[in-house]
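Handout, section 3.2

Students often ask what a structure token actually looks like in practice. Rather than define it abstractly, here is a full record for Histidinol-phosphate transaminase. The first block is the sequence as you would receive it.
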Amino acid sequence: MPSQLNRRDWLKSGLLASAGMTLGQTPTVIAAPFNNNGIFNVYAEREIELAHEAMLAAAPQIRARLSSNENPWGPSGAAIKAIAEHAPKAFLYAGPVTMELRKSIAEMHGVAPDQVLLGAGSSELLMASLLMSGAKGKVMMAETCYISGRDAREDGATMPTQKVALTKDYQYDLEAMASSVNADTAMIYVCNPNNPTGVMLPSEKLRSFCDAVSPKSMVLVDEAYIDYAPNPATDSMVENVRKGQNVLILRTLSKLHGFAGLRIGYALGQPSTLKELRKYCSGGFTVSTTSAAAAIASFKDKAFQEMVLKNTAESKKFLYDTLKSMDYTYLPSSANFVLFPIKVKGQVLLQKMMAEGVSVRSWFFDQQNWCRVSIGTMDEMKAFKEAFAKSVS
Ligand SMILES: Cc1ncc(COP(=O)(O)O)c(C=O)c1O
């Protein structure tokens, strides 16, 4: 039986272990490891992905990697050029380049540089936010979202959470969430568009939610997929940050910019929040010179971004048409992946697809098995179509 730890023990064990301390010693550093034994197992997601990649590598022929919502059209040529140009200076720490990146992100969003915190991907910052909030109280989240299901450690310790079911049409139930906020709520996590559903909230609704609830609890809006939204600039909650609200936004370049392997993410928030968040992460030190320079170049390459959006839309339409022609429904997606209900167990489908050299992901929620397919090139979507038809026949 796993030991049952209460929240204080749970935090203490994680923090002490991370600092290499034993009980009785006074910890001087509040830090926690970003490893698989971490307090909140965000990296469970990565572990699942790695398992899929291993299975894919063992598949007879690798045709399409559609399991991690990567962007097969990235990174941009301008980003690759910037990497080559900065590589000879990579013996130097990245300070000046990361400062430039931070400044350009601040300008892009109309906030001050001290409202931007960089990370090697947004996972680092998400983990830091969970550690920071878990130390204070509970984290509210939707029953099905990017971080749901990862709130337990193998030793039985659990992250204190408040989970709220999605609505019947798989939207965030903002009314139920607002009325569930109480003195224990330290953070509300909203993933918009949501992963794995791809469903997006009407921006005005989410904005009003942030207006009403942020005086009571910090709202973290994970905007990993916001670049695929109809109007990213106004669909983002960055305006609420600009208004001085207790809203923290996480962004990643892993998606639209095709930086999943380059690792750049950032947080936008109030300076005091980011100052506190820095205690739980590297404070931007994990970002490399080459990736930071590539990010600066990629932000400027608007033609590349338009190309990615156009290709994504074409491949997504092909996928929708494929599913319709096979009598499958799907959740209309505002991201670079599509979730749809399947008639067999997820693992069964995954294995059959893997045998055909195509990787996808599966979920079980709402009494239903689901398959999530990332949007790939047209060739990859055709490979999906062929493999899926064989797998379900
Ligand atoms: C909703 C969401 N948030 C955060 C991340 C982490 O992204 P990264 O660490 O690559 O920036 C992902 C990755 O897929 C995601 O789907």
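Discussion prompt for tutorial groups: Residues 302-325 form the longest helix (24 residues). How would you have guessed this from the sequence alone?
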